[in-house]
Design brief:
The structure holds 3 protein chains of 3 kinds.
Chain A lengths: L14 H6 L5 H4 L5 E7 L5 E6 L2 H5 L3 E6 L41 E7 L2 H14 E5 L6 H4 L15 E9 L2 H4 L6 E8 L12 E7 L2 E6 L4 H12 L6 E5 L15 H10 L5 E4 L2 H7 L5 E10 L5 E13 L7 H13 L5 E9 L13 H19 L3 H8 L6 E2 L4 E2 L4 H13 L1 H7 L7 E9 L3 E2 L8 E8 L5 E5 L8 H14 L5 E3 L3 E2 L14 H28 L6 E4 L2 E4 L4 E5 H10 L8 E7 L4 E2 L1 E11 L4 E12 L6 H20 L31 E5 L22 H13 L10 H10 L11
Helix pairs in contact in A: 7-8, 10-11, 11-12, 11-19, 15-16, 16-17, 18-19
Chain B lengths: L3 E6 L3 H10 L4 E3 L5 H7 L5 E5 L9 E3 L5 E4 L4 H6 L1 H6 L1 H7 L5 H6 L2 H6 L8 H6 L3 E6 L2 E6 H4 E3 L2 E2 L6 E7 L1 H4 L3 E7 L10 E9 L6 E9 L6 E2 L1 H7 L6 H10 L14 H22 L7
Parallel strand pairs in B: 1-3, 2-3
Antiparallel strand pairs in B: 4-5, 5-10, 6-7, 6-10, 8-9, 11-12, 12-13, 13-14
Chain C lengths: L4 E8 L2 E8 L4 H8 L18 E4 L2 E4 L12 E3 L13 H8 L9 H12 L7 H7 L11 H14 L3 H6 L16
Parallel strand pairs in C: 1-5
Antiparallel strand pairs in C: 1-2, 3-4, 3-5
The chains are: A alpha+beta, B alpha+beta, C alpha+beta.
Chain lengths: 773, 295, 183
């Protein structure tokens, strides 16, 4: 295998068409004759729909049909998580959703739908319909811990106290360990907020009949899973649906759930296969798709005076919203990470995933780890201060050591990643100088610098199935197309796969073409992209399939060159006789000859599946430098540096882009983003891009991304996860830096003016009695 | 596609007035950055509109024969910021409207719309209040002029009579002559945001630059409509430029403002920030006016 | 009430057109549905995300909150119009490609249009001014970093500052002057 393209900053293959504006996303492909679907959402946070009067709405000119929850005659409860299916019922996702429900469990739940000839007719009908719904209103609960109390409204009968799941871990004995004399205790509550993905392309899908099947074109990360879930939701055979995924305008995990594809397909079926489009408005994307879990933590550590841990406890309450979506997986990831990041002999941990009457939480970039990293790394900073150690030295001392082996996942830390990343990041940002410079400041405007790390892994082995399939088809000129179940959603999956194929087969990159848009009728089975698995998992099937193809090519070359296969190689598009390096023929000549030969004509293709039975740690660090204007209660992020070890970097340009995106999402998470609900009504308050404060261009400094490259030994190409990790360490780094600047260490997010005002006032930094009359 | 019952496009100011009289239910549509959004929200869905957006006669900035700065009501924020007259005499207005939303919003948003919607968070409003702007309205009865403090009646209600449109905003010479202003927008992010609170201060210093001859301060989102802080102004006018006077001035604004508690921001935060902004904006004005703080 | 239509005359991407539009249409509707210019994206429909940005008479507007009838007599450019007859990319498009400023690509057309306005203004923007000029667009993929670099480099090249443009690459830490003290 050559290494001509791997490791190079190759331009992403779709960049040219994207720069010309001619890439087609879902809406761009939909025929303008499509009927428009608008979903009727509940305006109560918990209730029973007693009736919906559709007569007035149906009179609006242009309205084709009005559907309500009462039109669902057979209730097929279905799961929505973009998890691989399990044939073991105990490992299947919770099936708790209906296409439309008569028992809405959150403000925004789906209770009906309007189909109209245009969007104006649909929205007129919708506003009339909203007023015609009669509810029996029920009490609701928005907070996870309150939802667990006796007497709290119960969302799902099968889950007493609204606990979707509760798991524990115990190692050694905390009770015994804390008897050791002279221990220093550090304890805190840490709270993270709900946020939304905010991909710029809202979720959209359309459906139409084709023969006796239904085709659904959808903006998704997981086309094959969508097909399965539409089947489950409609009670029809899965093969009755064909799912097509065009280019996607961002997913970030929201599109790793099945969203409105089942409703859209069902409506098309009800209308005899008519073309129907469901384009979710931004306001509904915020509250009727998925959000990030708000998680509350309590962590206690007992340390010796040398800074080592004697015992630790961890508790977390994870607000899952009204339906299970990804279930306990997100909370469990944090619990699982706790004893690994800072190993300690004596640990008690437990976590609850709790149903509440809020929008449904699901997968979002980081999958529970931005939350957990906040708690872990805020706590670690406070532990370091409690024992009087430099926060970086404290981490270096206590973090997972080289050679650490995790028995369940079989993950191993093969390299000195943490120290290497800290060293590199500290040097880039000038950490040690600035720490000194920023010590003991006074005045209104102060600066601070701090760091943070996180725990992450790649893919979902051994918890769930890991499988990847690849097909490569050679053309007459020796160029190839390839197809994968790992979807291109903007992260660059197609490009890195093409680089791998070019190097492994031995042809120029210009001869490698992705079939970018997955179609369940044509694309080999794959579960999509999530869990930072894409590059890692596709690498296995790509390499295996590319080698199969190469073998066929060299066998064909034997036919035309008469040379033994073991003396042949394919390098940069040329068949080479390895014994003397002579070029015998080009791949173009070979492909043409093999196809048109009168003796043994063959279409050169290869296809294979690789089941992955490994996983890999993927770690890194973030350094943040801030300026805090105390009277104004505002933080300005001056510099941010992330350093990651994702193994072999396949494409430095795209990898840096992944880091920048993660940093950016982390900046909003740290400083400004938070979804709000009205406590009295359960109504969402800020579900639009004006009131929800996603950080703007002017809120970003230059973003610095760097890498240490320790070749991952379990990986097909030495690479491992990078999509999600960069988001994880940002918020705690910013929080710790604000603490260094002001001496005020805050344990919640976001660190917005609202929070800073309260905290600075409490700390006496703001002292104006006049603010409160 | 907007849910518009009927759209009447005015071809001149007189035509707009005629259309408004013919269609008394019709609402005025200028740049649309608020109105179109409210149609989509449903608040103004299914209504009739008179579009005045194409009336170029309402665009542009000039100095009229009375030496007023005259800003045509349809002048967009971006054009106000770039205008040499604004930059020379009342640069703070250009700076203030340069903080509205983002560049594309500033290209469509008009100063007339920003005032006629009667919204307290409008970035132009506190500055116009602080510079005693005059609102010019043209209607069936002709032209009338209203001081901006009287133009705002209550939240989202302004003094526009049936058949009238706002045609210009005037800044009298007495108001802008030898004045230096500064606007601070307090918001949750640095772009694409509405003001949590906005504060616009301007000063005219004595010739020796040692005393405040006249200080005016206007606020947005400190009350249901944009307001001045008369107690604070009364305190500082004629006083020497000292640290203590500046601080007292800033704290005195609390006698004049009445911000509300909402999920967007608490009353206590808004009160606190209002004081900080008053002090900082005043200090910036002193610097712009060439003064110094003595003791 | 009967539907109201109007013929709009304008220039789109250098070509004079006459288009019958429903008066309720936004300019986004007209460009996407009637003229098939699908580079104009819908991300929020309220002027917050900037994905639908087009250039009208030299200035960037959110076409979602601009009535199609207002296009009368205007000169409008969309991303399709920046590409040469043979598919050639303009320099700002090429810079977005080269600098990795494109990921999912959904905000890209709007961003390129605003950037095109910036680089053709003949003005040298400071870094802060550049950020402000680009702040009418939201992007969730790139953190704006590579977009910033693409625009800054192209701006400098337009001003003949080729060496400075190359230096923009250096991944560096910004050293800030001491903050101004407020008492």
């Amino acid at each position: 295998m050559s290494n001509k393209y791997i490791g190079q900053a190759v331009t992403r293959l779709d960049a040219y068409d994207k720069a010309r504006g001619r890439i087609k996303y879902t809406d761009d492909l939909c025929d303008k004759s499509a009927l428009v679907i608008r979903v009727l959402h509940s305006t109560v946070a918990n209730g029973i729909v007693k009736s919906i009067d559709t007569s007035e709405a149906e009179k609006i000119p242009g309205v084709v049909r009005v559907f309500t929850c009462f039109d669902i005659k057979e209730k097929h409860y279905f799961p929505t998580a973009g998890h691989p299916w399990s044939t073991d019922p105990h490992h299947q996702d919770i099936a708790d959703r209906l296409i439309m429900t008569d028992h809405p469990l959150f403000y925004g739940d789906d209770i009906g739908a309007v189909v109209a000839e245009d969007e104006v007719a649909a929205s007129k009908a919708l506003s009339i319909l909203e007023k015609s719904v009669v509810y029996e209103e029920l009490p609701f609960v928005l907070d996870a811990q309150e939802a667990m109390e006796e007497g709290a409204p119960l969302l799902h009968e099968k889950f007493p106290n609204n606990v979707l799941a509760h798991t524990e871990i115990h190692m050694g004995s905390v009770e015994e360990a804390i008897k050791e004399p002279g221990l220093i205790k550090c304890e805190g509550w840490y709270e993270t907020q709900p946020v939304q993905h905010c991909h710029i392309e809202n979720f959209i899908c359309y459906a139409y009949g084709e023969g006796d099947r239904t085709v659904v074109v959808t903006s998704t990360q997981i086309p094959h899973i969508v097909r399965r879930v539409i089947g489950q939701a409609t009670g029809m055979d899965w093969g009755k649906f064909r799912v097509i995924k065009p280019y996607v305008g961002g997913g970030f995990g929201n599109k790793q759930d099945v969203l409105y594809e089942p409703l859209c397909a069902w409506i098309s079926i009800q209308l005899g296969g008519r073309l129907v489009k469901l384009d979710v408005p931004r306001e509904e994307t915020f509250i009727c798709n998925r959000i990030r879990h708000a998680i509350k933590y309590h962590i206690t550590s007992w340390m010796r005076t040398d800074g080592s841990f004697a015992a630790r406890t961890f508790k977390a309450w994870c607000n899952n919203g009204a339906y299970s979506s990804h279930g306990h997986a997100i909370a469990a990831k944090g619990l699982n990470a706790f004893p690994q990041l800072y190993p300690c002999d004596n640990i008690d941990g437990e976590t609850w995933t709790v149903y509440t009457n809020r929008s449904v939480a699901g997968a979002m970039r980081g999958y529970g780890m931005p939350q957990a990293s906040y708690a872990f790394e805020v706590h670690a900073e406070d532990c370091a201060r409690a024992v009087g150690m430099d926060p970086l030295e404290f981490r270096r001392k206590n973090l997972m050591p080289v050679g650490y082996y995790h028995a369940f996942s079989k993950n191993e830390l093969y390299s000195d990643t943490f120290n290497q990343c800290f060293d590199k990041g500290a040097e880039i940002i000038g950490y040690y100088d600035k720490v000194k410079k920023y010590a003991d400041q006074t005045g209104d405007i102060r600066r601070g610098i701090a760091a943070s790390t996180f725990w992450y892994n790649t893919a979902v082995y051994p918890i769930a199935l890991e499988t990847s399939s690849c097909r490569i088809v050679m053309n007459q000129d020796g160029s190839v197309q390839f197809q994968l179940g790992e979807t291109e959603i903007g992260q660059g999956a197609d490009t890195v796969a093409a680089q791998m194929i070019a190097d492994t087969v031995g042809i120029p990159l210009s001869m490698v073409h992705p079939v970018s848009c997955q179609d369940t009728d044509v694309t080999p089975f794959g579960t999509g992209v999530y869990a930072s698995r894409g590059t890692y998992t596709l690498g296995f099937s790509v390499r295996q399939t590319a080698l199969l193809l190469k073998e066929k090519i060299l066998e064909a070359a034997h036919q035309f060159t008469r040379m033994p296969v073991y003396n042949l190689d394919l390098v940069d598009g040329k068949i080479i006789r390895t014994t003397d390096g002579r070029e015998l023929m080009t791949i173009g000549e070979l492909a043409l000859s093999k196809l048109y030969t009168t003796e043994g004509s063959q279409h050169l293709t290869a296809e294979s599946t690789y089941q992955i039975k490994s996983n890999a740690y993927s770690f890194g660090v973030c350094f943040a430098e801030v300026e805090v204007d105390i009277p104004m209660c505002r933080v300005r992020l001056l510099n941010i540096v992330n350093v990651h070890d994702c193994g072999q970097v396949i494409n430095p340009l795209l990898a840096a882009g992944q880091v920048h995106g993660g940093q950016s999402m982390g900046i909003g998470y740290a400083l400004s983003e938070k979804l709000l609900w009205d406590e009295k009504t359960g109504r969402p308050l800020n579900n639009n891009l004006l009131d929800y404060k996603m950080s703007s261009f002017m809120d970003h400094p230059r973003l610095v991304a760097d890498f240490v490259e320790n070749y991952e030994p379990t990986s097909a190409y030495g690479t491992k996860g990078l999509g999600e990790p960069p988001t994880c360490p940002v918020a705690p780094a910013i929080r710790n830096a604000i603490g260094q600047a002001t001496g005020v260490y805050i344990n919640e997010l976001p660190l917005s003016p609202h929070t800073l005002f309260r905290e600075f006032t409490d700390a006496g930094l703001i002292n104006d009695s006049f603010a409160e009359e | 596609m907007y849910d518009i019952k009927a759209l009447y496009e005015a071809e001149s100011v007189q035509d707009a007035i005629r259309l408004l009289q013919e269609h008394p239910e019709a609402q005025i549509l200028a740049g649309g950055s608020d109105v179109l959004v409210q149609i989509r929200e449903g608040r103004r869905a299914g209504c009739e509109f008179v579009s005045i957006y194409m009336l170029d006669e309402l665009r542009g900035i000039s100095i009229d024969e009375e030496e007023n700065i005259r800003i045509g009501s349809l002048t967009s924020f971006s054009h106000i910021t770039k205008d040499p007259i604004i930059q020379k005499y009342i640069n703070v207005l250009g700076e203030a409207v340069d903080m509205v939303g983002g560049p594309q919003i500033r290209a469509i948003g008009t100063i007339g719309g920003n005032t006629c919607n009667g919204v307290t968070s409008a970035d132009s409003a506190s500055t116009l209040m602080a510079w005693d702007a005059i609102i010019e309205l043209t209607g069936p009865e002709g032209v009338r002029r209203v001081p901006i403090k009287d133009f705002y009646i209550k939240a989202k209600v302004v003094d526009i009579k049936p058949g009238e449109i706002q045609t210009a905003i005037l800044i009298p010479k007495e108001s802008y002559d030898n004045c230096f202003g500064h606007y601070i927008k307090y918001s949750m992010r640095n772009a694409l945001d509405i003001a949590t609170t906005g504060c616009s201060v301007n000063v005219r210093l004595s010739e020796d630059k040692k005393t405040f001859e006249r200080v005016r301060i206007g606020y947005g989102v400190a009350s249901p409509i944009p307001v001045r802080a008369p107690s604070a102004e009364e305190f500082i006018n004629g006083k020497e430029i000292t640290d203590q006077n500046i601080k007292t001035f800033a704290e005195t604004v609390l006698q004049d403002i009445n911000p509300r508690n909402s999920w967007r921001a608490g009353r206590a935060l808004r009160r606190h920030i209002s004081v900080v902004m008053a002090e900082r904006a005043l200090r910036e004005c002193i610097t712009l006016a060439g003064g110094e703080v003595n003791g | 009430m009967a539907k109201q239509y109007k013929v709009v005359h304008c220039t789109v991407n250098g070509k004079e057109i006459e288009q019958i539009v429903d008066v309720r249409s936004s300019l986004t509707d007209m460009l996407r549905n009637d003229l098939h210019l699908t580079s104009v994206k819908k991300g929020c429909e309220v002027g917050e995300c900037g994905a639908c940005t087009v250039i009208i008479n030299g200035e960037g507007f959110n076409s979602c909150i601009y009535l199609a009838v207002w296009a009368e007599g205007k000169e409008i450019w969309t991303l399709e119009g920046l590409t040469g007859p043979g598919g050639e990319l303009s320099d700002i498009q090429q810079a977005f490609v080269d600098e990795g400023a494109i990921q999912c690509g959904f905000c890209t057309p709007g961003f390129i249009m605003t950037s095109w306005e910036i680089v053709n203004s003949g003005k040298e923007y400071t870094d802060d001014e550049l950020r402000k000029a680009l702040s009418g667009h939201l992007c969730r993929c790139t953190g704006y970093e590579n977009i910033f670099r693409a625009v800054k480099k192209t701006m400098l090249r337009h001003l003949g500052k080729y060496e400075e443009a190359e230096l923009v690459n250096s991944q560096g830490i910004t050293e800030y002057p001491e903050p101004m003290p407020f008492k």
